[in-house]
């Protein structure tokens, strides 16, 4: 009886996975409907076989699954698609001594999610003048999930933000379920705070929190270079986004754990809405404050929406914020 129940669950899981794989990866049209109908018919046959004890009728399911896995394995990521404008270019860099030249730094002016002026620039950043690392968490679907952005500040007042994002095609929108089924490639975006932070707080109306992170300068420099290396790899070896295992937070954790010894894995790396609390527990946020105080002070939206023309956005959102002193 136990084996029968396990087989039943296996058939249901395989049927659901195959259905979603076909739904997200086959172009809409007759071919998709035929594939779905055939796949579901085999699943129904398998359920009938289990109910009647005719296990030999599970063979079509097994063969169909092998064909589906073979097709699934052939789906490869690509950098050559008709990309949406905000991810049309991939940020990448060149290193000359302590100076990193970042290409395709995004500096859009956003009036709404769909109304913006495009502007891509190249910028030089001297890692000897790197003085701060800040973490932004932008909440777009409740308290559990947030988008993670990491901003690097320099002595000249400039900030550049790195964000690991889905690289969506034109007319495509984010789907958490699609993120499990090779729906999107990964993209690395380097951008100004005026672009990538302000669009979330002002144009999209997401709740954005900023936390100043305490890291030794060598670790800050190594993290910056890790982002640059990540961008270089994605330029030559495209990779699929995965909602659970390859997203804006897990990739940052992977980079940090290779730089800073003793950074433990924690469930809050996956539940990214609680990431700041996890970092606070590592004593890596501004000292002398409770987490609740840092969270309240770090909510940038009230300051962001009052920015006046000509004001520096980065300065405005940091007013009254506890900032880590450079080590």
Mean pLDDT: 91
Structural class: alpha+beta
For the report, how would you describe the main beta sheet? 8 strands, mixed
Radius of gyration: 23 Å
Low-confidence stretches: none
Task: Describe the 3D structure.
This protein has 327 residues and is α+β, with helices and mostly antiparallel strands. Helices cover 39% and strands 20% of the residues. The protein contains eleven helices and ten strands. Helix 1 packs parallel to helix 3 (59-73). It is elongated.
Key terms:
327 residues; alpha+beta; 8-stranded mixed beta sheet; 11 helices; 39% helix; elongated
Question: How do you describe this structure in short?
Answer:
The protein has 327 residues and is of the alpha+beta class. The chain has helices at 2-25, 30-52, 59-73, 193-196, 198-203, 217-236, 250-259, 275-281, 291-298, 301-304, 313-317; strands spanning 92-96, 99-106, 109-110, 116-117, 120-126, 130-139, 146-154, 159-167, 185-192, 207-213.
Describe the secondary-structure layout:
Elements: H1 2-25, H2 30-52, H3 59-73, E1 92-96, E2 99-106, E3 109-110, E4 116-117, E5 120-126, E6 130-139, E7 146-154, E8 159-167, E9 185-192, H4 193-196, H5 198-203, E10 207-213, H6 217-236, H7 250-259, H8 275-281, H9 291-298, H10 301-304, H11 313-317
Parallel strand pairs: 2-9
Antiparallel strand pairs: 1-2, 2-5, 3-4, 6-7, 6-10, 7-8, 8-9
